[in-house]
Every structure is written in structure tokens, then in C-alpha cells.
Amino acid sequence: MKKIGFSILLLSLMLTGCQTSKPTLKVFSWGAYIDNTVIEKFENDYDCVVIYDMFESNESMYTKLLSGEKYDVLVPSDYMVQRLIDEDALQALDYTKLTNASGIINGLLNREFDPTNTYSIPYFWGNVGLIYNTTIVDQTDLSQGWNILRDTTYKGQVYVYDSERDVFMVALKALGYSTNTTNMSQINKAYDWLEVLDKTMDPVYSTDDVIDNMIQGNKAIAMVYSGDATYITAENPDMAYYVPLQGTNFWVDSMVISRDAKEVDLAHEWINTMLDPEVAKLNSVFVGYSSPIQTVFDDLKETDFYGLSAYTPRLDYPNDEVFKYNEDIKRIISDLWVKVKAN
Amino acid sequence: MRVFGNLVKPYMVWMSLFIVIPMLLIVLYAFTTHGNSVMAFQFTFDNFGKFFDPVFIKVMLKSIQVALITTGVCIVIGYPIAYVIANVDERWQTLLMLLVTIPMWINMLVRTYAWISILSDSGLINTFLKSINIGPLKMMYTDFAVILGMVYNFLPFMILSIYTSLAKMDKAVINASYDLGANTRQTFMKITLPLSMPGVISGVTLVFLPAVSTFIIPKFLGGGQYMLIGNLIENQFITVGEWNFGSAISLIMAIIIMLSMYMTRKIDKDIVQEAQGGNKW
Fold it and tell me: What's this model's pTM, rounded to 2 decimal places?
């Protein structure tokens, strides 16, 4: 027994010995959203440890926060920033520490979800559109806009992004409504639109696996985020990106600091580093999403991503909308989307 | 004896911390309304009422159906394998059992991902078929892919438990059967099979339970449109944020599982009693 007790003591000593006195920064961001060398460099430059966790949707990030997990820096999308502000979960950014903030594209700032950018600052931005195989899809069919997803010529050839927000956005836009509608009869019509798609098109509801699948050319049409489209079109020249004129969702994924962050100064350093043109360029080249830094954006659209329309999402197109957070509507469309999938 | 009695205590603490309390929380969530703070519960049956929608009942029936098929396939494949392993030379048995369990050393997620690259339209199988001019077979996102994934993941449980019951069987009984003039077929049907039933039954439990509640296999191999009860629960917790409804579904699931456990144990008892009491020779 004594021996066991001793081993346990020794083991616990060893474990505590591993803990360093270095400050630890906890970052929670999207999967495949950063060039990993940037993390290493930051750890060396600031003599700290970065714990970089990843999520696959704003909702799963929120659930993890709800379960008591604490992070310093988060990268939610616009409507989730709004929700976190409403719930008093964020702290105001100290702009005197964010010297690189001046380089941000003007059109991305002062958006409705955080009108004066008190809490959030852009990380990547873009929209939602269709990636299609130019050797299979007839160009004239594209004029149908989102309705091409229900064109039975392409039955069994369609990937739809498995996220209730995005599918309802598509259905509502196809019907000519606002994505932020609170009108129940419009929402029900959108539900019917999706039911028809589900019944007649034999679609596959995918998430990030759509990227590899479209690079391999497994299907003809897919609904994707512009940043993923940049990557896909760069890898497979048969693929092209198209954003329907009916309008789409325009989004800004933003960096925020949580209210109960432990390393507030380090969190500001992190955000400032991400806004540094050199780092921003590394990240943008690595993941394919559009950089919010004007100089980097202008540079990359003429060089690495030359001719790829997905890298330059349209800004301020009247039919495009940013999501607004609405608890009741969110619950209704979540239920409806489960019904579409389960039926 | 008292000393040994004390050894149970850490286990009791463990049980109550990690099994009883979470279960109680699920029950609590299942019977309360959304969004109330811990201090002010509002009891309700709405979460259960919501489940009795034809759409959700269909999801549940589909899950049970898929799990039953998986279990059936596992018995059909697993029994002969276990039988062969139990009857080869003892030196080989250890090695063969090792081979059965080796896949389980690797994380289930990784192994399921591997199936994607085997089954996908431009995957291993279809690339091969293409080279001999057979059109691409659509395998991903079908019942076939999901059941294949489940059988692949859960088969070792079936083999292990059947093998255990076959290996510990008293060979003298089988020899006695031959001595009394029974042929191989009769001996297998009347002696080996009934005596190995406890192994089959526990194999059924070990395969059916994970198969009926898994969400990662249908999600990967079936796509987002392939919705089983596990996906529904995951969806309610992670995406929708309706922990109360999610808990209610989990609770309904738990009840169904407990009922099926009770039934299998009952069948188990009956069969063993019959096998042991049926010495008609």
C-alpha cells in the first residue's frame, strides 16, 4: 500500500511539474481558419501558451460557452456577436491597443450587429453562394438563381449546407422575402420550398465535407460559403462560383473578447496580431477566406486569388442581408429544418 | 468480508457522480420548460407531447430498424467467426482474438472517416470499378453505407461475447453428445447453440444499444439528411439549444433501452433453463 501511495504522490508531483508559469491564452475559433505557423510565432513572440480550440458552428460554440467553458478570444459571426452583446457576455475592446485596426476595409465596419464596433472587429468576411461544375451545369440555368437547387435536371447532383439559418436564407431569398422575416406565412412558404427540394432532388445535406467532395467533382452544384468556394475554385478549375441576384447572406466573422477573459492584455495582442497585414495575408492565403485588411485584400485579389470571384464578395448589394438574431424565429426554423430532414 | 465491503465505496461515489447525477439532470430537464433558472422550475409534459409527432416517431422507428438489421448482420457474421476461433488450437486463439480487437485500438471517428474515402464516388472501390469499366456505384449516403459502418464498428463486441461463451463451454458435454450417437449437426443444434445463447444475447445487447443511439456513423456515412434518434438528440442539444426537448427524447430512449434489456434477459433465462433442463437422453 505504501508503494502505491508513493507512486501516486510522485505522479502528482510530475503532473504539477508540467505546469508552466507562462500565461495561457485561450482562443475559440472555426475549424481550419488560421495558418498554424501564426500560432507558433505568437507563442514565441509573447512567451505564452495558446490553447486554440475549434468549433463547427456558432451554435455549438454558444453551447460550449453555456456549459461553463471559458475563453479569452472568440470568433463568432455577426448575429452571434449581437446575441453575445445582448447577453452581456463580451467586454469592450480597447482600441488604443489595436494599432492595426486602421487598416480594415471601411465597408465592414459599423454594421448593425455592433453599430460602433465597440465589442467586435472583423476577422474574415464573405457571403453564401453556389459552386457549380462548368462542364455539367448549363450557364443559362444559373439565371434561376437559388431555384436551380430545385431544377430536376440536376436531381441527385446537389449538396445543400446543413445549417437551418443558411437553408432558410436560401428558401426565403428564392421566394423574394427578407432573410430576417418574422412573418410566419413567409416562413411556412420557405418550409414548403425546402420540402419540395428535399422530396424531388435527392439532395445531400453536408457541412465541411462539401469542400473535398466538390474538389473531387462528386456532384454538380453545392451551396457553400465564399471562402470555401475560393479554395475549391483554386483547386479545381472546372468549378466556378455564382451568387444569385435574388440576394444572399452577407456575413462578417469577428473577433471578440469575452467578459470573463483572464488574459485581457494578451487577448488584445492576439487580435492586433491577426490584423497585422503580414499575418492577415498568411491566414487569408492559407484558408481562402477574404481578408478584412484593405491592403491585403487588394494585393491577394490581384495575385494569389486572381480571377477567383469568390474571393471578392460583393459589398453593399441591396438584396444581400446580414442575419439578425431572433430567439423565437431561430427556434421555429430549427424545428422546421429538423422536420424537413426527418421526413 | 468487511474489508472487501469497503472496496465498493469508491465505486459507489463514482457511480453517483457520473451516472446517477447526470441521469437525474436529464429527468429534471425533460420535465421542465425552456429557459428557467435553476431556482425556479416550471414543470411540464410538453417536451414529451412534442415528441409524439409522426415525424419524430418515424425517426425512432427508423433507428430501431437500422439497429435491428445491424444486430442481425453481426450475429450472422460474428457467430461463425467466433465458432471457428473457439475451435482452433489454443495458441492460435489468442492471436485471432487479438486480430479481432486490433481495430478497436484506433479511434472510431478515424475508422469511420476511412470508410468515407473507401465508399465515396471517387473513392477506392469506385476507382477500381472505373478501371474495369463498371459505372460508379452510389454507396455513400445510403442505408448500405450506414449499416456497413455500424456492423464494422460493433462486430468485435458480438464476436468477443460469443467467443467467450463458446470457449468456456464444457467440452465433455459435446463429447458426451457424440458418444451417445448424435452427429455434428445435431450436437451443434442441441448442445452448442443453446449453451452459447447467453453469449449471443449479451452480444445482441452490446451491439443493439450503441447501434440504436449512435449519431456519428449516420452523420458521416449517411449525410445530414440521414436522421436517426441520436442525431435528433445531438441536434437538439448542439444546434437548436433545446436541452429540455433533447432530454425528453433521451429519456424516452432510455426507457426503450431498459425495456429491451429486460426482454433480452428474460429470453436469456428461458433459453438457458431449457438447455439445462432438456436432458432428454
Answer: 0.86
